[in-house]
Write a structure and sequence with these properties.
eight-stranded parallel beta sheet; TIM Barrel; globular
């Protein structure tokens, strides 16, 4: 892009610090206003199904097992076994040593397998280790890689270091057989401290070749918030308008209810536009959101609320 043709730390700093400052009051007021928008009953069924189709169903615990991942994959492929019309989720997200289990369980479903890499969630490892982590996930069959940026380097102003690490990770997303995995860049916005930093990190990740920008690992609070997601949606919109590619957005962590998910869909439509109302361009990173969406879906179909015993456990 113009202004950073000769890439150096200084040129990146000039570019990123030349971005417009974020009006905190205005941003939070707009997010609050979008959060009050209602969706008519006739559109709510469509919105719930759309939200289900955008979920990265996630398990990222130290106690994860092959059995837990297979169970999660079964739920991803058949979220409501009583209703074959219920859409599948977009992806299942696991640690990279469990990628092969998810790939086997999801074969033929069209559901993507996403793996967290680059020393998730801290990102505290050498670049060689991070790239090996990424390559291991891709060679194992991951369609998508969720990497974490080095927040310490970013907050210290070492923008070129962060840029080069994202670019190197993107290059590592190409398998030996030529298959390319999409790269989601996790900013860990809860550690970036300011909205201006979130805007700068978003642009840095996009310039470096990320296919998605993602709010959080889900391990740090605050995780996804509506104002932060609104800000990132403005960034991907403005990036494309400036001559860049279309980039996806993934809020992750803390989105648990259908009501919240619908607020995010309204925010996507009103901010970036309907081009982003698609699982290729917007995802929810979630482990519990699907259950509430299924309960609300059943309520719309039957007129009564079934309760949590009527959906499968994650």
């Amino acid at each position: 892009m113009a202004g950073i043709d000769h890439l150096t730390d200084a040129s990146l700093r000039r570019f990123l610090h030349g971005l417009p400052g974020v009006d905190q009051v205005g941003l939070e007021a707009r997010a609050a206003g979008l959060g009050t928008r209602s969706i008519k009953t006739t559109s709510k069924a469509w919105a719930i199904d759309t939200a289900i189709s955008m979920i990265d169903l996630t398990t990222l615990e130290g106690a994860d097992t092959h059995g837990k991942v297979r169970t999660l994959c079964a739920k991803a492929a058949h979220p409501d076994p009583s209703d074959p019309a219920c859409p599948t989720v977009a992806a299942v997200c696991v640690y990279n040593d469990l990628v092969d289990v998810a790939v086997d369980a999801l074969r033929g479903t069209g559901i993507h397998v996403a793996a967290v890499a680059t020393a998730f969630p801290s990102g505290r490892a050498s670049r060689a280790v991070k790239l090996a982590d990424t390559q291991d996930a891709v060679e194992g069959g991951a369609d998508e890689v969720d990497m974490v940026i080095d927040r310490g380097a970013f907050l210290s102003g070492h923008y070129l270091q962060v840029f080069e690490e994202i670019a190197a990770t993107k290059a590592a997303c190409t398998a030996k057989d030529g298959r390319e995995a999409h790269l989601k860049v996790i900013l860990e916005t809860g550690e970036l401290t300011t909205y201006d930093n979130v805007r700068r990190a978003s642009w840095l990740a996009m310039l470096a070749g990320g296919d998605f920008i993602k709010t959080s690992t889900g391990k740090i609070q605050p995780a996804a918030t509506l104002p932060i997601t609104l800000l990132m949606l403005e960034a991907v919109r403005d990036f494309r308008l400036a001559g860049g590619r279309q980039i996806g957005v993934k809020p992750a962590g803390g989105i648990r209810t259908s009501k919240d998910a619908l607020k995010y869909l309204v925010t996507v439509s009103e901010t970036a536009g309907d081009d982003w109302i698609d699982p290729d361009w917007f995802r929810f990173g979630a482990s519990t959101l699907l259950n509430d969406l299924l309960l609300q879906r059943q309520k719309l179909a039957t007129g009564r609320y079934s309760g949590p015993d009527y959906v499968t456990l994650d």
